[in-house]
Amino acid sequence: MISRRHFCSLLAAVTLAGCTQPQQADPPLPMGAPLPKAAKQDAPEADVGDVPATFQVKFETTKGDFVIEVHRDWSPHGAARIHELVKIGFFDDCRFFRVIPGFMVQWGISGDPKLSSKWAESNIPDDHPTGANRQSNVRGMVTFAKTGAPNSRSTQIFANYNDNSRLDPDGFTPFGKVLSGMEVLESLNSKYGEAASNQQGQIQDEGNAYLDKAFPGLDSIKKATFIDPGTASDEAKPTEGEKS
User: Fold this and answer.
1) CATH number of the domain located at residue range(s) 55-230 in this protein
2) d(CA 151, CA 143)
3) Contact present, 232 and 56 (Cβ < 8 Å)
């Protein structure tokens, strides 16, 4: 027979256990869509000769503008790829399909299925910067998404909301940083969570026609353009709290 004192101790222990909150798991990695079977893992070296050492890109969105400053030394192949994508207008009318508060925002699947198909196998080699060029996925840093396979970066990128340095060992190499407009990125519609990201195959196959039907509230990029170096100092001046 359990004594009254033992019973009370047992009851207190059960009550305490019931009030303990479970440990929240980290969000899934910023994964890009799996590479097609035909895609080669030995991606060709990118030509970075025409890519500036640093350049800035302004993204005009449905919530306002933000500016990314790209550093070639941080990620040579990543810088060359983002330069190429902006130059051809790839990000214009792209949706922010994965917005996870406290973690990151991800975009880079074309709204045009034909364009997505064209870039499906166009992956770039991994970058392995060292010394001062090795950056971490802390707040405001911008990085290409990838699968668990080597050389699997393609067109999808993400901006870190918080310190996500846990991503560093997995090959997520930052190529730039948010210079201004972090508050814009943090105001993007996050109500769909992981739902749209879990349908990356269908997004690539059907583009914005699918997203606008299944996830009509997603924010989007209106246009992405290079900032003229002569005007960058005024147009892309970092706001308070965004200086790294």
Assistant:
1) 2.40.100.10
2) 14
3) yes
